[in-house]
## 1
Amino acid sequence: MADVARARTAEIIAVGSELLTPFRLDTNSLFLTGRLNDLGIDVRRKTVVGDDPQDLGGALTGSLERADVVILTGGLGPTADDVTRETVASVLARPMHEDAAVLEAIRARFERRGAAMPAINRRQALVPEGARVLPNPNGTAPGLTLELDDHVIALLPGPPRELQPMFDAHVLPLLATRWPGRRLHRRVLKVTGRSESQVEEIAHPIYSRLSTPEVTITTSILASPGQIELQLAASGRQPAAIDAALDAGVEELAAALAPAVFSTDGRALEVVVCDLLRARRWKIAAAESCTGGLLLGRLTDVPGSSALVLGGVVAYDNQLKIDALGVPAEVLAAHGAVSAEVARAMAEGARRRFGADVAVAITGIAGPSGGTEAKPVGTVALALDGPEPVARVVWFPGDRAMVRALSVAAGLELVRRAASRLPA
Ligand code: AMP
Ligand code: MG
């Protein structure tokens, strides 16, 4: 007898010979995995196959033996190398027929652009018996779903901007109604200024006992330069119980990791900083040396940042630090460009000259050359000028890209702490 509570499984097959070259990556499966997990469906295997009926047929046959849900992406185009539709029909031994409505929709799409439909596009109107056609408002290739006794199979177009809305509009509701029950809820705590092992040491004793008989919570740690994410995924049958267990877990972890936790609602560090600047009615300026404008780049990625960011200077050259920021030549001579004194003078200069409420400065040695015994590669001076000035020299590990990314995160963190009145 079927176990109704059993966690359902899925496999994803990404079809496209370009995905087997060094030039294209299968990203559709990342989107699909997120959505399937939200439905409580485990993704057990992902396969990438070229545009080859034999390879695809073999992959599909294997997936159908193992998984409840099989999602194929790509290969629905009009050209001879698009083989997904035909291969699925042949593996399932279902004849195909031309669907008049689909053909008309494709023809109309061409007509709207003032063109006649090329004859080859007619193939896209072929539908395996029993399949449901999913309209594609963003392209010519319609999607297809097949509901079998034990399986759901979906065929979706390759381009992410066509696949994503189609999945959400048609496949997601289908799966949710077919297998109601287990759901997966997620939360993420984002931390900066701590290493992965520091976070693990504090968090492990807490997250290892978050699960309850009703709710299973699994935690994973994701590290990227300047940021550690603690991802909590909880599954159970009662949405309210899942949320309650997650809320309690997040609260306990956030308290233990404070003040290094900058968000528990998914916001990125630069977004948190912008929200704080807005709340404080602060305008910010920056003086960047080794980060070359990357800090202002991240801040101005945020929509609405033009009301908060005045601007800044990229002052790589020492003379420019003097001319554009008013760093005293004696301070540069006495302490060197990578020093707390110069970083402080850069921040003061940026704040004063640009009329900002708060200014942040970064000057460091990103490498690979330029290091000395006293100031090795990775030495970075950071300063903030504002209500409570801060200046310090730190050392970051890693290559040039890593040192720059860590410097930007540390600079943004200085602003976050100042704006939320946390100790720097
Ligand atoms: P197709 O539907 O096979 O004609 O794919 C059209 C385009 O969609 C390809 O050229 C890729 O740029 C893109 N695409 C196909 N499969 C994927 C995938 N798995 N992930 C991301 N993009 C894809
Ligand atoms: Mg293709």
## 2
Amino acid sequence: MPGQRNQKFMQALPGFRDFLPDDSAARNYIFARWREVARRYGFVEWDGPILEPTDLYKKKSGSEIVDQLFNFTDKGEREVALRPELTPTLARVVATHEREFKKPLKWFSIGRFFRFEKQQRGRLREHFQLNCDIIGESSLAADIELVALCIDILRQFGFTEKDFVIRISDREFWTDFLRERSVSPDGWDNFLQVIDKFGRESREKTIEKLGELAKPVLKVLSEGGKSEKLDRLVDGLRDRGLAEFVDIDVRIVRGLAYYTGIVFEVFDRAGNLRAVAGGGRYDNLIQQLSDDAVSMPALGFAMGDVVLGELINETPHARKKMQQAIAAGRKIDVYIVIAKEERRADALAQIQQLRDLGYRVDYPLTPMKVARQFQAAEDADASLALLYGDEWPQVKVKTLATREERLVPQDRLLAHLQAQPTLPS
Ligand code: HAM
């Protein structure tokens, strides 16, 4: 049936989104806040390619991400993958251009990522991430700065410490634990994966996987886990008045294989959603990916647009803030009402001049009843309507909010508009 055949391409693929104007406006709102706060922290923007050699991820991202790759063989017989994350690309780029930049680098990027995941709430097959990374700084001051940046980005959306929490941990806490118990480093990755799944898998399964480590692990977890490094990190945030936003939680180890130190994840306080953001230190990745050519400490995090969008929509004050910003960004300044078609040429000359000056101006492309034109002006939330009709060479200027009207001679119109408080100066 032709109808059925059409249905296939009338829908986006599972896990992919169409961005209608409202969705695009919400996306731009998120990107603008991301960019603004990253710039406030002195980060500069960069980007990499969307397609990378599959090996880049096989080398160090960890099995979970490799299983989720959108990969294929290209026409040149190369094994390639749509990027599931940015960190391996960043490590490659930094290793290649290392000499061109003063350290530490503070780089951010906003882009699209692809993971062939089971589609579920908060998880799609295509999503956007903000990545913020600091390269070439091993001091804890960088970890504190990065967590503060993450907090301030979320605060910019109107969220408070009642809306979200950053759970912070340290992989070294666990690697020290394993070293003390003489567990060979070969088994560390597996162990960390079990801790990562703690609480998501059944208790029996976790205990079985941990074997003889089950008892000491459960003891450590029941005590909450203590670390002098983590205490110093929280102190650093307290100095900035940001300690309320974080909790120490050693159950956080992160799924990705390359992390080496402090790691963190951001969750909604209500606990309804998946992680909003996650990151940490990956001091060995650049060295490993560059086959020992370049070695630099590094740390960063990524925040996804999907869960963040859900959290905004679930948090009334954040949703209101977004709606107000979108409405303000969408409104136009002037709607030109062409009441007499003979005046269309005069109106168009005026429209061109106003647009050249930077005003947002709209008008009916084809003849239309005056009442419908005023309705269009209301719909576009225009500040002013200018009526071109029998009054010419005077123009009727109507302030839509107050309904106030005034006749202004055409040659004084520009000066009149420029003096209006409702228009941008
Ligand atoms: P990640 O935890 O895999 O970390 O992803 C970061 C964030 O991206 C998640 O917290 C989530 O909000 C979002 N995200 C991930 N996958 C999906 C998905 N399938 N659908 C919707 N949102 C998703 C990384 O990617 C690391 N590379 C972050 C990093 C940067 N570490 C150091 N620098």
